[in-house]
Design goal:
This protein is of the alpha/beta class. It has a single domain, classed as Luciferase-like domain (TIM Barrel, Alpha-Beta Barrel), CATH 3.20.20. Helix content is 38%, strand content 19%. The chain contains ten helices and eleven strands. The strands form two sheets. The protein has an eight-stranded parallel barrel with strand order 1-2-3-5-8-9-10-11, surrounded by five helices. Helix 2 links the parallel strand 2 and strand 3. Helix 1 crosses helix 2. The chain starts with a strand and ends with a helix. The model has no long low-confidence stretch (mean pLDDT 95).
Length: 275
């Protein structure tokens, strides 16, 4: 199992320098990856906090910075909202980050769910079935374009005519499809390289969700809160049949309450969940 860290890039006082510092510390401590998520604005009401809006750093811009400020740690999105970017535009952005980082991008993408930010930004929030259909087409386009060959694709929602995204001097990034619902998980099994779900705490529930992947042998990742003793975290992580776990060191997603928790986790948990 590889283990990553959800970077704290939310908050009205967050700075790029601080996120870079934490990412570099994660790399020094031996974590395999660092991850950012994707919102225009956000609130914590869903997680028991306030419904007051908070800002966040743009994930792709932030990863472009981290591509040059880190050396080996992998750089992931958990996950981008497909509705925010046309897949051709995203392919161009992802290709640049992947190339700048020496092939370290992990590209996670989902259908989007936070209707409030759509409404505030004056954007259409399509029904779930439409968003998922668009996501499936977008993943097919991304896989084709990031492979470096010309792509011709005519779907219901997107049309691409013999376009190519280059350069492609490194192998294309893994494309993780995020989601928990039956249709989203099945979609990951059909077209994704991997499936990501956050923030399951129960391995049995996760395994039940994974049945909707069908017979597909996609990679699996999960977002996890770092709660409990070191042994409890070891036991919980090893109970999940996943390739990658992304740890959050806070009571809310993509937070970091105490940076020293990273050091303790690296010393007391990482050696026992690897491999």
């Amino acid at each position: 199992m590889k283990v990553g860290v959800a970077l704290p890039h939310y908050g009205n006082d967050v700075t790029v320098d601080r996120v870079v510092e934490i990412a570099q510390e994660c790399e020094r401590l031996g974590f395999d990856s660092v991850w950012v998520s994707d919102h225009i604005v956000f609130d914590l009401a869903k997680y028991g906090g306030s419904d007051a809006l908070i800002g966040c750093l743009d994930p792709l811009t932030l990863l472009a910075v981290l591509a040059r400020e880190t050396m080996s740690v992998r750089l992931g999105t958990m996950v981008l909202c497909n509705e925010f970017r046309h897949p051709v535009t995203l392919a161009k952005q992802a290709a640049a980050i992947h190339l700048a980082s020496g092939g370290r991008l992990e590209l996670g993408i989902g259908a989007g769910w936070y209707e409030r930010e759509f409404r505030m930004a004056g954007m259409t929030f399509p029904p779930a079935g439409v968003r998922l259909a668009k996501l499936e087409e977008a993943v097919v386009i991304l896989k084709g374009l990031l492979g470096g060959e010309p792509l011709y694709f005519h779907g219901t929602h997107y049309h691409v005519d013999d376009i190519v995204v280059r350069p492609s001097s490194v192998e294309r990034p893994t494309i993780w499809v995020g989601g928990k619902g039956d249709r989203a998980v099945a979609l990951a099994g059909r077209v994704g390289d991997g499936w990501n779900a956050a923030w399951f705490q129960d391995a049995g529930e996760y395994a039940e969700r994974a049945t909707h992947l069908g017979t597909s042998r996609v990679r699996r990742s999960i977002g996890q809160y770092a709660r409990g003793s070191a042994q409890e975290m070891v036991d919980r992580l090893t109970s999940f049949a996943v390739d990658h776990a992304v740890m959050c060191f806070s009571e809310v997603p993509f937070g970091l309450d105490d940076p020293s928790d990273l050091t303790r986790f690296a010393q007391d948990v990482l050696p026992y969940v690897r491999g």
